[in-house]
Design a protein that fits this description.
The N and C termini lie far apart (81 Å). Helix content is 69%, strand content 0%. The longest helix is centred in the C-terminal third of the chain and has 34 residues. The protein has one domain: Cytochrome c oxidase, subunit III, four-helix bundle (Four Helix Bundle (Hemerythrin (Met), subunit A)). The mean pLDDT is 91. Helix 1 runs antiparallel to helix 5, helix 3 runs antiparallel to helix 4 and helix 4 packs antiparallel against helix 5. The chain is mainly α.
Length: 214
């Protein structure tokens, strides 16, 4: 190789660039967003299934006659679901505060707010567990039972996933503190939580109010 064919390469000094960026500047943020888009499409499919069942069942929801007590009016109960919805909405307050604390890397606030959000998440999982009884049907009773159980079950799955994430972040924070990477994890988990709340605000009237209107 002659000197004429040699092309010198220019190197860039990136030592001053931050190792972690938040929101749309982070690949993790985009990965989380794309995942949530996929999950939103999945819930869209379940909504379509629910309304397909509703259009093909008369009456809707169907009466429960295969076991006692017989329910001719089988609309789902609202007491426990409304409690769960209110707790979910209230959870936005510590969720937003935790998101902001993570961006500031405020370790003291994070150590207070993480156990709070973890406790609320656990309470929501327990409420959802008993909420299935509000539907009056089991998943294998009929198409209506299958559709509603699937919607509640998929949403509960996301509650469990974020609960596991919160457990990990809580343990890490109390043992090793908060570095930039885990501060980013907190903000991404917050976006995930906003999505969980938003999806249930959409799904709640479909599951619990639509049967009262049709």
């Amino acid at each position: 190789m002659t000197s004429e064919n040699f092309v010198p390469k220019t190197s860039l000094d990136v030592s001053d660039l931050p190792s972690t960026e938040f929101d749309h500047r982070s690949p993790l943020w985009w990965g989380n967003l794309i995942g949530l888009m996929i999950e939103t499409a999945m819930f869209g499919i379940m909504i379509a299934v629910f309304f397909t069942v509703a259009m093909n069942l008369r009456p809707f929801p169907p009466p429960r006659v295969d076991r006692f007590p017989v329910l001719l009016d089988s609309e789902p109960n609202l007491t426990l679901p409304i409690i769960g919805l209110l707790v979910l909405l209230i959870s936005l307050v510590p969720g937003i505060l935790l998101d902001l604390a993570g961006r500031r890397r405020d370790v003291k606030s994070i150590k207070i707010l993480l156990p709070v959000t973890l406790s609320i998440n656990l309470a929501l999982i327990l409420i959802r567990y008993y909420e299935f009884d509000s539907l009056h049907f089991k998943w294998n009773d009929n198409a209506y039972g299958s559709a509603t159980w699937m919607i509640l079950g998929l949403h509960m799955f996301h509650l469990i996933v974020l609960f596991c994430e919160d457990v990990y972040l809580t343990v890490w924070t109390f043992v090793r503190g908060i570095d930039e990477k885990h501060a980013l994890d907190l903000t991404v988990a917050a976006v995930y939580w906003y999505w969980i709340v938003g999806m249930w605000v959409l799904l709640f009237p479909i599951v619990y109010l639509v049967p009262r209107m049709l």
